[in-house]
DNA sequence: GTCTATACAGTGATAGAC
DNA sequence: GTCTATCACTGTATAGAC
């Protein structure tokens, strides 16, 4: 698969459209024709940029993970304390959800993982690995500096926080009533700090 | 839509097969032919029992919610303390996940909610409503009896707990490394009780 | 890079016989 | 309740011209 940094400008428009469709409808919920209509070209032109649907989705996930890592770096540069970093992290999910209730690309693909081409599955698992590792480090640092309670263990908290954010997007969009990732993060961090 | 308690024995086998397919692959990831092959009959026979795919999925979600409510009642009958009830609740998710890493039917459908027929969407939102209400009541009772910390507020905790369980199934299945709903629930309840 | 045309499998769904 | 046969349509994907 081509790396997203090497693709043309028209291919980028295809990736943008596919990303939105995946967040709204999932991998099995959109077609090349949907992408073509959004971009304003014909279906075979999409195949010119991405030979298979799996290639396209893998590129979407790859770029999504890359952008997330950029944001993680930005958070480290802007916030020193663990609690502030975790709050800024939660805002990444809230900002995504704020655009037409879009889901996390990898949360959506994660739900569909058993019906995905192998290349996509790999990118999705990498996203979760990157995020869990980063959260675990932030939390462990915060515990060591006594900014956070020493228990539960950092990695367990990291997995729980990530799961709560991913789940919050899904439950909120379906139930209408629930308060979304921001609310869930707030509740979680309250418990973590108290 | 017909209520699931009124359908025939052969229709029940169809619902069983569709339920498993939804948990593994999602609404947009299975076809009438997949169901037919699992049940051992032909595609038009599925249509005889459920005119549309939406009818079938709605019945699956309806029965799933009903069974969940039976389990909630059973928990109330077996456990008096809030913490025990919450742990037993988490076990419902863990037991589902333990069967070939099956997702919660409504967690999966919730992710796909923007590409679902209206009848299915309605059943999914009802599932989340039932679960959030029950959890909020259990937690509020526990807080009143001083078995749980008085903050955060019961409904906020209920939404967060449910989101964490739904998210844990998705993240664990995709990442391989994470510890599943049981681990996440354990971590969450530790924070809640400490 | 985009197009028209097309291949070909699969999709949800229906008609009508047994 | 199940079947064969068939429908109209959409799905991913390819060939080849511009």
UniProtKB/TrEMBL annotation, chains A, B:
InterPro entries: Homeodomain-like_sf, HTH_TetR, Tet_transcr_reg_TetR-rel_C_sf, TetR_C. Gene3D superfamilies: Tetracycline Repressor, domain 2 (1.10.357.10). Keywords: DNA-binding, Transcription, Transcription regulation. PROSITE patterns: HTH_TETR_2 (PS50977). Residues 8-68 form the HTH tetR-type domain. Pfam families: TetR_C_13 (PF16925), TetR_N (PF00440). GO terms for molecular function: DNA binding. Residues 31-50 bind DNA. This is TetR family transcriptional regulator. It comes from Rugamonas aquatica.
